[in-house]
Amino acid sequence: MLRIFLISLFMLIFVKACVRMIPPDDVSISSTAATLPTEEPTEEPTEEPTTGATTEEAESTTAPAETMCDQCNIDDIAPTMLETGTDFVTQPRDPVDGCIRTYTTCGRTDSLVCDAAKMFATTPTGEQEVVDDTTGNAVYVTFTCANDGTYSWMGVTEISALRCQWIDCV
């Protein structure tokens, strides 16, 4: 009987603690001032420098920034001349801010077991290893299409080709 009483007592304490953590509906964090000004703000005239062009002309000559991040094709950078018993697989992912994302896998399809699998990206500055996840027989990377229309991964940009490599396969 004492055991049931103690369990009930502890449960009641926990329930009260949980209830206290839920704020009432009329309580919220707000940045509204306690007293709002009743007068309309006055705007003092400012003198604008003259450039010879009106505001309308200046706005019409400014072209919106174009993005080509929806125009990448993973086949353009896919590895060529893969080893026998290997495969390069791609899967589209949901775009982020309209930019294409592609999940790629370089994997073995044969019975060989490897110590490591690596993927390299060729950029204007050379070849860099790219990897999100890896096993001995496969490497996985998600590439994002950049505003310039080329694929990128983390800080690796302007990728023009991919290469897969398997190390010490038996």
UniProtKB/TrEMBL annotation:
Record's keyword annotation contains Transferase: no
Protein keywords: Signal
Domain of life where this protein originates: Eukaryota
Keyword Endoplasmic reticulum: no
Compositionally biased region (Low complexity): 48-64
Pfam family, one: DUF281
Native organism: Caenorhabditis remanei
Signal peptide residues on this chain, from the entry's feature table: 1-17
Residue ranges of the region described as Disordered: 33-64
Designated name of the protein: Uncharacterized protein
Xref: InterPro entries: DUF281
